[in-house]
Amino acid sequence: MKTETKVLLLLAAWICGISLQAYFAINDYVLITILVIGCGAIWFFSETKIEKEGRKESQDLMNQIRSTTNDAKMKKKQLLTMVQALPYPILMLDQFGKIVLYNTRMETFGSLTDIKGMTYLKNGFDKTIQEFLKDAFIFEKELNKQKRIRERDYELVSVPILSHDRFSGCLILIQDITRTLLGEKMQKRFIADASHELKTPIAAIRGMVEILNRDDFNDDAVQKDFLEQIEKEIMRLDLIVKDMLELSRMSISDPILDRHHVLLEELLNTAVKTMEPLAQEKKLVLKTDFGWCGQIFLDPQKFSQILVNLLSNAIKYSDHGTITVRTRGDDDYVIVTIQDEGVGMSDQQLDRIFERFYRVDSDRSRHTGGSGLGLAIVKSIVEAHGATIQVESKVNQGTAFHIKLKCI
Q1: Higher confidence at residue 53 or residue 231?
Q2: What is the mean pLDDT of residues 298-320?
Q3: I want to staple 339 with a disulfide (CB 3.0 to 4.6 A). Which of 239, 249, 273, 400 is the partner?
Q4: Residues 6 or more apart whose Cβ sits within 8 Å of residue 158
Q5: The pLDDT of residue 17 is above 70
Q6: At what angle do helices 178-212 and 220-252 cross, to 10 degrees?
Q7: What's the confidence (pLDDT) of residue 363?
Q8: Pfam families, per this entry (predicted)?
Q9: What is the pLDDT of residue 20?
Q10: 248 or 205: which carries more pLDDT confidence?
Q11: Where are the domains of the chain?
Q12: Which residues contact 282 (CB under 8 A, 6 or more apart)?
């Protein structure tokens, strides 16, 4: 056997763990056979280990992919749930202008179904919405517009979606702002009406003061009359300011109620006794008719304010007849009615009765010193109690206010 071959065999024997004594004692051919078998075994077991490690790495990778996929599915489900829960219509366009996502409110808003995959031009939406979707897709920037759609006001918002600084679609939100705009309109009207209401007595006071300050004025009778009128106008100003402040507080937040269990009959009798002198001055009959008596859970001070205000209006707008305070009820509800036989109201006047500064008879109201805010305050307090108020009226036959309260 060649020297090179023996050296290789010696090296192989050493790798296989055969000692030198065993190596030189074994026949060359037997040695070769042993070495071949040993090397094969080493190769086999080494290969098996590599396969196991490979399979483990592959399994770990599959588990990681599966976990990532499950996380992605969960996040997608959460996103869809959130989109469906949004209180306004929403949809998403992709980079090709196709609808890829929308919620049920969008379906209801557009009276459409199965619009996924449709383009922004072919989806059956209102023409105004289609034009906005077109602008959102073409301009690829944030848009915000107010539009009038089907007799309601909406704010349309488009937010671009970017991927690696490239436009990949946009998100469209549609919000009904009818009540918001109406509130802003009413606020502007309230400010204008308040300015007018304050300006009128101020102008009257200023005119009388200018006359009283004239050097040539010396009429004692007129002076006394002017001073009495000035006092009335100041009291009216004070009432307007107080009512405005109270109504403003109620507009910002719900009235803070200090509720107690009180006997409704006692509360009504107290209000009637308070207003009786004013009724007697106009020769009006103020009577009670209690068909329901019991305790009720309310704010006695605030509810007394309601009663006094309604009785005051009944006296103010009645020149004769009877004013009745009546209760009717059962185990669940009680209805308190304040009814007069006064001038009454038309249907048009009835629709505006709870508006701020609205007066059925402006001359009568100003003469008696009303602020024009009383019924607006009454309605706010009634609603704060979780109750309702309704009005019935006929011209020259009288008016009836019905307050429906929940029993204890």
Answers
A1: 231
A2: 91
A3: 400
A4: 132, 135, 136, 142, 143, 144, 170, 171, 172, 173
A5: no
A6: 160
A7: 55
A8: HATPase_c, HisKA
A9: 47
A10: 205
A11: 3-63, 86-176, 180-252, 254-408
A12: 315, 318, 319
Options 3.40.50.2000, 3.30.450.20, 3.90.45.10, 2.60.40.790; CATH for 86-176 is 3.30.450.20
The rounded percent of the chain whose pLDDT value lies above 70 is 77
What local confidence, expressed as pLDDT, does residue 38 receive? 58
Predicted local distance difference test score (pLDDT) of residue 401: 96
Q: Which residue carries 């379906």 as its tokens?
A: 107
Specify the range with the lowest mean pLDDT, choosing from 21-30, 178-187, 296-305, 368-377: 21-30
Q: Which CATH number fits domain 254-408: 3.30.565.10, 3.30.450.20, 3.40.462.10, 3.10.100.10?
A: 3.30.565.10
Average pLDDT, the chain: 80
- Directed axis angle between helix 374-384 and helix 300-316, to 10°? 150
HEC assignment per residue over the chain: CCHHHHHHHHHHHHHHCCCHHHHHHCCHHHHHHHHHHHHHHHHHHHHHHHHHHHHHHHHHHHHHHHHHHHHHHHHHHHHHHHHHHCCCCEEEEECCCEEEEECHHHHHHHCCCCCCCCECCCCCCCHHHHHHHHHHHHHCCCEEEEEEECCEEEEEEEEEEEECCEEEEEEEEEEECHHHHHHHHHHHHHHHHHHHHHHHHHHHHHHHHHHHCCCCCCCHHHHHHHHHHHHHHHHHHHHHHHHHHHHHHHHHCCCCCCCEEEEHHHHHHHHHHHHHHHHHHCCCEEEEEECCCCEEEECHHHHHHHHHHHHHHHHHCCCCCEEEEEEEECCCEEEEEEECCCCCCCHHHHHCCCCCCCCCCHHHHHHHCCCCCHHHHHHHHHHHCCCEEEEEEECCCEEEEEEEEECC
pLDDT at 90: 86
Mean pLDDT of 226-248: 82
- The arithmetic mean of pLDDT across residues 349-357, rounded, is 83
